[in-house]
C-alpha cells in the first residue's frame, strides 16, 4: 500500500516551479563561454552545492554522458529545461534525490536554480531555489548591478532572474470555451498563459502553464504573490465550471470521462496524443470523486509514459509501434495497481 | 524556453503586440514568428533589433531606439569583445561588462521588455529587497543635488520623478508585508516534499 500526499490545490494545480538565472561575475556569459570556462562553472558550482547542508542529496549529471531518451526523460519530468539540451557539449545538471531542487549548469546562463513542488506551493519552491542561490553566491559572487539586479545573458531575464510558473489542469474551463477570456484577463496582470504541450488554443491534456513575464522592477515576493493570487482565481473558476458541468448532467459527464478509463484499461496501442486526452479525462474524474485513483500517482504516471521516459523504461531504442505497445501495457498494469488499493 | 505557439521548438523571439490597447506578449520560434510576419507586413525580422524596434514598440520611442541601435552598432565590449551588432543578432550578452558597455541602448531595451529599469528584488547575500530600492533612492538624491547645483533643471526634474516612483514602490512593498494573503484551501494541505 502506498501513501499519497495531496498538495494544496492539487485538484487543479499539478505543480509549481521557480527558476533563478545567475552568472558568475568574472566569467564570460553563454555566447563567449569556452569549454574551459564552462568547466570552471561546473567546478565552482558543484563544489559549492555539494558542500551545503543537503549537498549529499544531489546527483551530478553531464548531459553529454546521457542517452537521448534519458535526457528527454529529465525534460518530461520537468527536472531540467529543454534549453539545457541546446548546449549538450558543455551543460550539466545537479538533481536532488527528491527531484524538488535542480541546478542547471551552462544553459543560457551559468546557473539556473530550480525549485519544483506538487500543487500550488510557489513560495516554498522559491525558498528552496533562493536558499541554494545564497549559498553558492556567498562563495563565488554573481554578476549584479544595483540598478539592474542580477545580470543575465539575455536582458529579458535580468533583474530578479526569476521565472515562477504553475502547471494547471483546466478541462472544464477548456470545455466551456472560456479559455480565451481567461487568457486575456491573465495577460492584463503581466502574466503569460500557454498550453503546456501543443499550441495555445488546443492544449494537450488541457494542461496550461501560467508564468510571470517581467523580471525587472518587482520583487520576488511581489511576483510570487501576484502569480499565486491569479492562480487561485483560475482554480476557483475551474472548480465552478466542474460543479456546473456536474449539475447540468452528472451521468453524462461521468459517462464521457469514465469511457476514457475503459480505453486506457484495455487498449493495446496508445500514442501520446490520445493518451493525453484520456489522462485529462481520468484526472478530471478522479478530482470529482468518480474514480478512486490518487491524483499524484496519475500525474507521475503521465510523465512516466511520455516518449523519452517510456524509452528509458524499455532500456533500448524502440520503433514508434513498439513505444505504443509498451505505453499501453504500462498503463494497463499501473492503473490496475492504482485502483486495486 | 519553448515556443508558445507550437510548443516544440525553442523560442528565440519575444513578441509584444498591442491589441485594443492591451499588451500581449509571446515567446515564439522562428517558424511561428514567420507566420505572424505575414500578418504584419513591412517589418524586417532578419535580426533581433528589427523585432525590438518594430513590434515591441507600438509607441513613439521607436525612432529613438532605432537611432540608438544604429549609433551603437559598432560599439564593442572591451572585456569580452562582443559587439552590439552581435548582441542584436543573438539576443545574448557576452559578459557582465557588456551591460556597462551598452548601457544606453540597453536601458531603452529593458524599459520596453520589462516596463521598468530599476531592480526591486533581492541583492546578493539575501539582503531584503527593500534595501536595493533604498540604496537607489540615496544614489538618485545625490545626483539630484548635483544637478540642482549645476543648474541642470531638466535633469533634476527627471530625477525627482524617478525618486518619487521609487518611494511609492518602497511604500507599497512595506505596506504589502503587513497584509498576509489568505490561503483558501479546499484540498487537504499536504507537506509536499519540501526538503531536498
Ligand atoms: Zn513555434
Ligand atoms: Zn562583454
Can you tell me about this structure?
The complex is a heterodimer of chains A (about 350) and B (about 200). Chain A has about 350 residues and is of the alpha+beta class. Helices cover about 50% and strands about 15% of the residues of chain A. Chain A is built from ten helices and ten strands. In chain A, the strands form two sheets. Chain A has an eight-stranded antiparallel beta sheet. In chain A, a hairpin with a 5-residue loop joins strand 4 and strand 5. In chain A, helix 6 crosses helix 7 and helix 7 packs antiparallel against helix 8. The longest helix of chain A has about 45 residues. The N and C termini of chain A lie close together (about 5 Å). Chain B has about 200 residues and is mostly helical. Helix content of chain B is about 50%, strand content about 5%. Chain B contains eight helices and two strands; from the N terminus they run E-E-H-H-H-H-H-H-H-H. A two-stranded antiparallel sheet of chain B has the order 1-2. In chain B, helix 3 packs antiparallel against helix 6 and helix 7 runs antiparallel to helix 8. The longest helix of chain B is centred in the C-terminal third of the chain and has 26 residues. Chain B is globular and about 55 Å long. In chain B, about 30% of the residues are buried. Chains A and B meet through helix 3, strand 6, strand 7, helix 5 and strand 9 of A and strand 2, helix 6 and helix 7 of B. The site of one zinc ion has 8 residues of chain B, from helix 1.
What is the terminal-to-terminal distance of chain B?
A: 25 Å
List SSEs of chain A in N-to-C order: EHEHEEEHEEEHHEEHHHHH
β-sheet strand percentage of chain A: 15-25%
The strand order across the widest sheet of chain A is 2-3-4-5-1-8-10-9
The low-confidence parts of chain B are: 37-60, 175-196
Number of DSSP E strands of chain B: 2
Fraction in helix of chain B: 40-55%
Amino acid at each position: 500500500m502506498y501513501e499519497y500526499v495531496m498538495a494544496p490545490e492539487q485538484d487543479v494545480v499539478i505543480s509549481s516551479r521557480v527558476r533563478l538565472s545567475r552568472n558568475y561575475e568574472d566569467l564570460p556569459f553563454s555566447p563567449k563561454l569556452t569549454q574551459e570556462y564552462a568547466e570552471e562553472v561546473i567546478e565552482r558550482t558543484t563544489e559549492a552545492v555539494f558542500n551545503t547542508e543537503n549537498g549529499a542529496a544531489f546527483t551530478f549529471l553531464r548531459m553529454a554522458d546521457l542517452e537521448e531518451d534519458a535526457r528527454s526523460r529529465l525534460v518530461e519530468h520537468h527536472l531540467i529545461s529543454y534549453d539545457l539540451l541546446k548546449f549538450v557539449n558543455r551543460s550539466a545538471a545537479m538533481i536532488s534525490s527528491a527531484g524538488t531542487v535542480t541546478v542547471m549548469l551552462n544553459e543560457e546562463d551559468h546557473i539556473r536554480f530550480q525549485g519544483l513542488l506538487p500543487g500550488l506551493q510557489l513560495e516554498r519552491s522559491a525558498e528552496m531555489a533562493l536558499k541554494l542561490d545564497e549559498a553558492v553566491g556567498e562563495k563565488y559572487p554573481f554578476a549584479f548591478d544595483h540598478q539592474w539586479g542580477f545580470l543575465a545573458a539575455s536582458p529579458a531575464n535580468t533583474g530578479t532572474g526569476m521565472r515562477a510558473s504553475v502547471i494547471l489542469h483546466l478541462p472544464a474551463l477548456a470545455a466551456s470555451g472560456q479559455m480565451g477570456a481567461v487568457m486575456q484577463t491573465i495577460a492584463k496582470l503581466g502574466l503569460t498563459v500557454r498550453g503546456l504541450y501543443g499550441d495555445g488554443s488546443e492544449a494537450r491534456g488541457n494542461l496550461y502553464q501560467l508564468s510571470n513575464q517581467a523580471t525587472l522592477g518587482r520583487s520576488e515576493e511581489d511576483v510570487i504573490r501576484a502569480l499565486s493570487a491569479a492562480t487561485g482565481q483560475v482554480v476557483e473558476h475551474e472548480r465552478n465550471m466542474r460543479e456546473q458541468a456536474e449539475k447540468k448532467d452528472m451521468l453524462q459527464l461521468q459517462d464521457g470521462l469514465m469511457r476514457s478509463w475503459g480505453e486506457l484499461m484495455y487498449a493495446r496501442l496508445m500514442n501520446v496524443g490520445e493518451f493525453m486526452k484520456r489522462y485529462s479525462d481520468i484526472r478530471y474524474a478522479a478530482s470529482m470523486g468518480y474514480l478512486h485513483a490518487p491524483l499524484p500517482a496519475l500525474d507521475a504516471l503521465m510523465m512516466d509514459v511520455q516518449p523519452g521516459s517510456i524509452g528509458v523504461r524499455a532500456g533500448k531504442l524502440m520503433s514508434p509501434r513498439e513505444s505504443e505497445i509498451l505505453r499501453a501495457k504500462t498503463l494497463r498494469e499501473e492503473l490496475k495497481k492504482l485502483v486495486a488499493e | 524556453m519553448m515556443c508558445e505557439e507550437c510548443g516544440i521548438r525553442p523560442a528565440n523571439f519575444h513578441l509584444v503586440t498591442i491589441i485594443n490597447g492591451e499588451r500581449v506578449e509571446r515567446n515564439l520560434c522562428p517558424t511561428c514568428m514567420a507566420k505572424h510576419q505575414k500578418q504584419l507586413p513591412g517589418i524586417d525580422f532578419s535580426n533581433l533589433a528589427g523585432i525590438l524596434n518594430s513590434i515591441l514598440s507600438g509607441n513613439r520611442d521607436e525612432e529613438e531606439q532605432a537611432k540608438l541601435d544604429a549609433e551603437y552598432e559598432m560599439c564593442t565590449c572591451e572585456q569580452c569583445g562582443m559587439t552590439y551588432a552581435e548582441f542584436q543578432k543573438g539576443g545574448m550578452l557576452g559578459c557582465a561588462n557588456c551591460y556597462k558597455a551598452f548601457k544606453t541602448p540597453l536601458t531603452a531595451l529593458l524599459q520596453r521588455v520589462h516596463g521598468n529599469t530599476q531592480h526591486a528584488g533581492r541583492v546578493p547575500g539575501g539582503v531584503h529587497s527593500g534595501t536595493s530600492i533604498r540604496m537607489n533612492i540615496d544614489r538618485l538624491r545625490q545626483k539630484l543635488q548635483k544637478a540642482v547645483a549645476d543648474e541642470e533643471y531638466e535633469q533634476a526634474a527627471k530625477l525627482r520623478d524617478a525618486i518619487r516612483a521609487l518611494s511609492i514602490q518602497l511604500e507599497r512593498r512595506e505596506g504589502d508585508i503587513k497584509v498576509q494573503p489568505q490561503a483558501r484551501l479546499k484540498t487537504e494541505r499536504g507537506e509536499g516534499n519540501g526538503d531536498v
